């Protein structure tokens, strides 16, 4: 006499409740919020064209004589 064993499919592969997608959407919203609150003001302040730029004058010739008289 032959014994037939029918193994049921695993529950994790049969039903997915979409929890990963919900978690991904929450992380995306948090990232976008942080970008708008912190990222955009930093980018705007660095691109400000009205800021004063320091003027540096470089001499034409530099004397590097290390021998002292």
Helix count, per DSSP? 2
What letter string, H or E per element, gives the SSE order?
HH
Mass-distribution shape: elongated
Unreliable stretches (pLDDT < 50, length at least 5) are: none
Content of β-strand: under 5%
Fill in the keyword field for this structure.
69 residues; elongated; mainly alpha; 2 helices
Structure description:
The protein is mainly α. Helix content is 46%, strand content 0%. The chain contains 2 helices and no strands. It has helices at 11-14, 19-46. The longest helix has 28 residues, at 19-46. It is elongated and about 115 Å long. The chain starts with 10 loop residues before the first helix and ends in a 23-residue tail after the last helix. The model has no long low-confidence stretch (mean pLDDT 81).
Provide a quick synopsis of the model:
By secondary structure, this protein is an all-alpha fold. Helix content is about 45%, strand content about 0%.
List the helices and strands and how they pair.
Layout: H1 11-14, H2 19-46
């Amino acid at each position: 006499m032959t014994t037939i064993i029918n193994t049921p499919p695993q529950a994790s592969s049969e039903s997915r409740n979409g929890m990963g997608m919900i978690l991904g959407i929450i992380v995306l919203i948090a990232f976008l919020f942080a970008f708008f609150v912190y990222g955009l003001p930093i980018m705007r302040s660095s691109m400000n064209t009205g800021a004063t730029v320091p003027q540096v004058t470089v001499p034409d010739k530099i004397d590097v004589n290390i021998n002292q008289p």
